[in-house]
Design goal:
By secondary structure, the chain is of the alpha+beta class. It has 3 domains: about 110 residues, Ribosomal Protein S8, Chain: A, domain 1, CATH 3.30.1370.240; about 100 residues, Arc Repressor Mutant, subunit A, CATH 1.10.10; about 200 residues, BirA Bifunctional Protein, domain 2, CATH 3.30.930. The chain has 19 helices and 15 strands. The strands form 4 sheets. Strands 7-10-11-15-14-13-12 form a 7-stranded mixed β-sheet, sandwiched between helices. Helix 5 packs across helix 7. The chain is flat, with a radius of gyration of 41 Å. It binds phenylalanine.
Length: about 500
């Protein structure tokens, strides 16, 4: 907007003899559209407050609709029907009346309701309508004429006519402007910069400096921005650290089938292993660095339970299958390595977590990608129970996601028994949503590692993408991660406050 319209507006207000000047008059006087004056007034309020004061009044006017003025000219539809019917007992066939025009149907109904006419259903050749009174007074037409002449009618009459779509009420708003407490015909020009020269010469004493605007938003910084997944990861990491967890090293995307599956007592014939779910590595295809003695114990446990007292899977177990290199399908592979290390180093109660990438050969859709991130926690101790896991998860999800209502559903994982899916009540979406998977690691997994018999280990996992998507209001994972991500989304994503999502 040019400043000149603002200047013109001020001059107009200055010269006017009225206290309160209608915006419509100003527009006419300045020969511009009313909307131009209206936006100039808005801008004055924002940029030069105090010069003028805007106010408005509103009043409503009732007008006849097209149908209303037709009835005012020709009579209400019911009166037209009455007048069309000849006097006498025979009346007029309903069919004939209806054929006379579109308004006759309403007219007949209204005339019947007013008892001006009556219907003879048994008349020869179909129902006939007869006059039922000698004279009528068309009060509807009378009222419509009153309204057209600007006279008032009762509320009930008005309501009835509105229902008949004969009249409509429009609210007219009128805007006014008057002089404000800091009115001046000319806009004061403030000094926006205080220069060393102004200070040295003392000239600053004669200047009026523009006041600071503490409400102004800062310009966005032209710097790099963290991806939302990284911000949410930091939130979860902090919560784990606050709860006494230490972070597991996750810097190996390539893993052996042994640590990803076999160490977890996942049978070699398990469907998740085949090429549909797992990415196999071609080169190097095999892993040479699996500890022999541990591998022998795992083999025995799979085949017949070994020393654990379990029956095992009672199928042959091959080293060849265990050595196959893959992209890890879950971070529980890392947990397995760390639990084995815990046994090797001499057991002590521990809490460990990881947040990193995993890979699955999935069909890509709005909620699945071939790579995503898992958040995982394990708690190992001597006096740990399933009740302890439930208690811990309640505490964790209240802290991490502000969810304090959880439900658990029995599930199956080869490496945990019992296993539970975790559902949380989302207060915003007002529904239960699946948030993770959990369980107590099986003795067939823990004992071959060399963990003492009385030690129990709890584990749980969830994806990092899901809470991040809920937080950002995204429903397609491809908008969050992968080659289709809009960099502006990364730029705009607010600093994360998960408890508010
Ligand atoms: N690995 C499981 C998953 O991929 C999560 C989980 C971790 C379950 C630890 C139980 C214990 O869904």
């Amino acid at each position: 907007m040019s400043e000149s319209i603002i200047q013109d507006l001020l001059h107009y207000v200055d010269k006017s003899t009225e206290n309160s000047i209608a915006v419509a008059d100003i527009a006419k006087g300045l020969n511009v559209e009313q909307t131009v004056v209206e936006s100039a007034i808005k801008r004055m309020g924002a940029v030069h407050p105090g010069y003028i004061v805007a106010s408005s009044t509103s009043h409503s006017e009732t007008h006849l609709t097209g149908e209303g003025s037709y009835m005012a000219d020709n009579g209400s539809h019911e009166a037209v029907v009455y007048n069309t019917i000849p006097e006498g007992d025979a009346g007029m066939p309903q069919k004939e009346l209806l054929a006379m025009g579109p308004n006759y149907k309403v007219g007949i109904n209204k005339a019947l309701a007013a008892k001006w006419v009556a219907m003879d259903k048994k008349a020869e050749g179909g129902p006939a309508i007869k006059r039922a009174v000698a004279t009528i007074t068309d009060i509807t037409r009378h009222n419509l004429k009153l309204i057209r002449d600007g006279k008032s009618v009762s509320e009930t009459v008005l309501k009835d006519l509105k229902k008949r779509k004969a009249v409509r009420t429009v609210t007219l708003k009128e805007q006014f402007v008057s002089k404000g407490e800091n009115f001046s015909a000319e806009i004061k020009v403030y000094e926006t910069k205080l220069t060393p020269e102004m200070i040295a010469s003392g000239e600053w004493r004669n200047k009026e400096l523009k006041p600071y605007n503490f409400q102004a938003k800062g310009a966005p910084l032209a710097c790099g921005h963290l991806h939302p997944l990284l911000k949410v990861r930091t939130e979860f990491r902090n919560i784990f650290l606050e709860m006494g967890f230490s972070e597991m090293p996750t810097n190996n995307y390539v893993e052996s089938s042994f640590w990803n599956f076999d160490a977890l007592f996942q049978p070699q014939a398990h469907p998740a292993r085949d090429a549909h779910d797992t990415f196999f590595i071609k080169d190097p295809a095999n892993c040479a660095t699996i500890p022999d003695d541990y591998m022998a114990t795992v083999k025995a446990t799979h085949e017949d339970g070994g020393a654990t007292g379990s029956q095992g899977y009672r199928t042959p177990w091959t080293t060849e299958e265990a050595r196959k290199n893959i992209m890890r399908t879950h971070t529980t592979a890392v947990s397995a390595r760390m639990l084995k290390k815990l046994a090797d180093d001499g057991f002590k109660p521990s809490r460990m977590f990881s947040i990193d990438r995993v890979f699955r050969n999935e069909t890509l859709d709005a909620t699945h990608l071939a790579e995503f991130h898992q958040i995982e926690g394990v708690l190992a101790g001597e006096d740990i129970s399933l009740g302890g896991l439930v208690g811990f998860l309640n505490q964790f999800f209240a802290k991490a996601l502000g969810m304090d209502k959880l439900r658990f559903k029995p599930a199956y994982n080869p490496y945990t028994e019992p296993s539970m899916e975790i559902f949380g009540y989302h207060e915003g979406m007002k529904k239960w949503i699946e948030i993770g998977n959990s369980g107590m690691f099986r003795p067939e997994m823990l004992e071959p590692m060399g963990l003492p018999k009385g030690v129990a280990v709890l584990g749980f996992g969830l994806s990092l993408e899901r809470p991040t998507m809920i937080k950002l209001g995204l429903n397609n994972i491809r908008d969050l991660f992968g080659h289709k991500v809009d960099m502006q989304m990364v730029y705009n994503a607010p600093a994360c406050r998960l408890e508010k999502f």
